[in-house]
Amino acid sequence: MMSTIHSPQSTYSISDLSKEFDITTRSIRFYEDQGLIKPKRRGQTRIYSLKDRVRLKLILRGKRLGFSLAETRRLFELYDADKSSSTQLNTMLDLVNEKKSALQQQMDDIKVVLMELNSAEQQCKAALEDNSAKKNK
Amino acid sequence: MMSTIHSPQSTYSISDLSKEFDITTRSIRFYEDQGLIKPKRRGQTRIYSLKDRVRLKLILRGKRLGFSLAETRRLFELYDADKSSSTQLNTMLDLVNEKKSALQQQMDDIKVVLMELNSAEQQCKAALEDNSAKKNK
DNA sequence: TGCAAACTTTACCTTTACGTAAACTTCATA
DNA sequence: TATGAAGTTTACGTAAAGGTAAAGTTTGCA
């Protein structure tokens, strides 16, 4: 099932994607189960499109940022949703603003922790030099 | 058990902390269970120190960044560890660098997602204006 | 002294995000 | 043709991070 033609591929097998993103096929099927991706089928074999691949990338990035699969699915749904419904658009705006402020908070957290880690690193290095100066094992 | 004196308090009850950080007492005891904090006891009542409070804050910040409790505990352990053991110091350096690059990656992720969210926000607003111009419900 | 609020332990329950195993089908190819 | 790789479904298991309930202390204070 492994496709050999590279570059701008337009369909992918499940193992193509599991290798590319270094996740198990189990995970990919699970995301489908949860309604995050909807690959076509050829017989009972799943055929993934470019859109599916983009979504996978978004799912994984979301995960790195602590989004639950349910949250990510919600974002997908809204993104696909009816653009003529003002109610939907407002719901989306609310969600977007919620996410934005959460991410701002995360940015701030990260900056603080990075500074602390840098400081810890310096202390470690200093202590190591100190140790080697004193020549104790 | 609620202490009434404010400002630089030096001990706290479990409910003091649960209120301050807006988490349940169950969570606080769970963190203790997992070896992240070690409050003193008066009888069987837990007495939390400033250090415990700082750790709680660190635990929660870690959680916001997607650190597991086990990871946070590991960082605490290394921080408390023997500063004369070069092996330990090197282990710590490794862990610190690992965390640093993960956080850098997160920062990059966040920047991308923030840009996308901003763009989504603009599109929503434009669509809303469009809708109201066309006066459809 | 005697309640009510706050504290405690113990223990089982829940959700999320998969892992793992079993048993089956499809397909290329030796 | 048969064997092995890759795919599939179904189903049970698991780890993390608590929630919740039961049943029992402790303590302030009216």
* Second-tier CATH architecture of the largest domain in chain A: Orthogonal Bundle
Stated plainly, the CATH topology of the largest domain in chain A is called Multidrug-efflux Transporter Regulator, Chain: A, Domain 2
Query: Mean pLDDT of chain A, nearest integer?
Result: 88
Number of domains of chain A: 2
Oligomeric state, counting identical vs distinct chains: homodimer
Computed structural class of chain A: mainly alpha
Essential attributes:
2 domains, 3-stranded antiparallel sheet, 7% strand, DNA-binding, 137 residues, Multidrug-efflux Transporter Regulator, Chain: A, Domain 2, flat, 5 helices, mainly alpha, disordered N terminus, 3 strands, homodimer
Task: Describe this structure as you would to a colleague.
Two copies of one chain form a homodimer. Chain A has about 140 residues and is mainly α. The first copy, chain A, has two domains: about 10-65, Multidrug-efflux Transporter Regulator, Chain: A, Domain 2 (Orthogonal Bundle); about 80-135. Chain A contains five helices and three strands. Chain A has helices at about 15-20, 25-35, 50-65, 70-80, 85-135, and strands spanning about 10, 40, 45-50. The longest helix of chain A is centred in the C-terminal third of the chain and has 48 residues, at about 85-135. The relative contact order of chain A is 0.07. The interface of A and B includes residues 79 and 86 of A.
